[in-house]
Amino acid sequence: MNNTSEKKPSFGRIKTTKDIGEAVRRKRKEQGILQEKAAGLSGVGTKFLSQLENGKETAEIGKIMQVLRTLGLEIYIYPRSQSPFKDQ
């Protein structure tokens, strides 16, 4: 059994590029938007969005921010000592 298919992506703490991709994919699917449409609305290519959703480590941050804005997602940065996710 594959553990990744059982794991539900979180909208909380982001530790890896894979976490960002999973959050993007989850939000896009919740909104019922195909990759092609989400990419077009975000001003990025479908290939970029696919790579982002798959956790590509070298994805361009500016384009990531475009996709996040389009899908209604935000990034917050906290010092570890002030993290709202201390229990994780």
Report on the structure:
The structure is a single chain. The protein is 51% helix and 0% strand. It has a single domain, classed as Orthogonal Bundle (434 Repressor (Amino-terminal Domain)), CATH 1.10.260.40. α3 packs across α4 (46-53) and α3 (35-42) crosses α5. The chain is built from 5 helices and no strands. The model is unreliable at 1-6 (pLDDT under 50). It is mostly helical and 88 residues long.
Give a short synopsis of this structure.
The protein is mainly alpha-helical. It has five helices and no strands.
Keywords:
single chain; 88 residues; mainly alpha; 434 Repressor (Amino-terminal Domain); 5 helices; 51% helix; elongated; disordered N terminus
Query: Which percent band covers the strand fraction?
Result: under 5%
The best one-word shape is: elongated
Could you give a short account of the major beta sheet? none
The computed structural class is mainly alpha
Cα radius of gyration in angstroms: 13 Å
Indicate the low-confidence ranges by residue numbers. Answer: 1-6
DSSP summary: helix tally: 5
Q: How many domains, as an integer?
A: 1
Q: Classify the helix fraction into a percent range.
A: 40-55%
Reported by name, the CATH topology is 434 Repressor (Amino-terminal Domain)
Q: How widely separated are the two ends?
A: 25 Å
CATH architecture: Orthogonal Bundle
Q: What is the CATH class designation?
A: Mainly Alpha
The average pLDDT value, as a whole number, equals 88
Number of strands: 0
Instruction: Let me know the CATH homologous superfamily.
Output: lambda repressor-like DNA-binding domains
SSE order, one letter for each helix or strand: HHHHH
